[in-house]
Amino acid sequence: MRTPKIEALHRLIDWLNGRTIYNKKLLKLDLDNSSLGSNPWLTGFIESDGNFYCGFNFNSRGIATIVKCYMRISQKKFYRLNSEMPEDKNSNLNIMEKIKEFLNIRKVNEIKRTRSNYVELGYEVRTTKKKSCDILIDYLTAYPLFSSKLQDFLGWEKAHKIRISRSYKTIEGTNKLISIKNSMNTRRTQYNWDTLNKFYY
Predict the structure, then answer these.
(1) pLDDT value at position 134?
(2) Residue 33 region, left (φ>0) first, then alpha (ψ -120 to 50), else beta?
(3) Residue 152 belongs to domain with CATH number
(4) To the nearest 5 percent, what fractions of the chain are helix, strand and coil?
(5) Are residues 51 and 5 in the same domain?
(6) What DSSP designation does 108 have?
(7) Which phi and psi (to 5°) does residue 145 adopt?
(8) What gap in Å lies between CA 2 and CA 107, rounded to an integer?
(9) Cα distance from N-terminal residue to C-terminal residue, the chain
(10) Distance between CA 179 and CA 170 in Å, rounded?
(11) Which structural domain range is residue 22 located in?
(12) Which terminal CB of the chain, N or C, has fewer other CB atoms within 10 Å?
């Protein structure tokens, strides 16, 4: 594990070790500090807490302008609120900094999210730069997503390439962007299982 949630795993291990009838006890390992690019951990993190965004405006001729394509990950500031844990053991900043460094993102942003009865402080990173997006594409090609979020990624990758090539500056390119955006996230109405088979079989 790479986040403060390891504390919950350690409590479970203590509970199991206190009740086992065997002499052999489960070991509590430290946080995993291996490179994020060496295994699919970040893929799972994106599955849970990441999302892919594609947005743009239109000029008077109906051509896309100010095209934005990024992947965003956010986490609440502290693993456990009102905890007596030391802040360095309770904060999610460390893992967000590591994601920032791996994806060559400029900084970790502090955010506020309004809930029904409180305001939650959090951290967020976004792959806005071309280099950051390219690193992410290479990583998720090596360690693919598993859920329908794979379809979001593939659409987002196409939109990113259209943005970089600036081919959105034609009606044809703009229409491609519109089609991609309308098939991502909550707008998707179909799931392409052939794409999944391409990655895993």
Answers:
(1) 98
(2) alpha
(3) 3.10.28.10
(4) 45, 20, 35
(5) no
(6) P
(7) -70, 160
(8) 19
(9) 28
(10) 14
(11) 1-33
(12) C
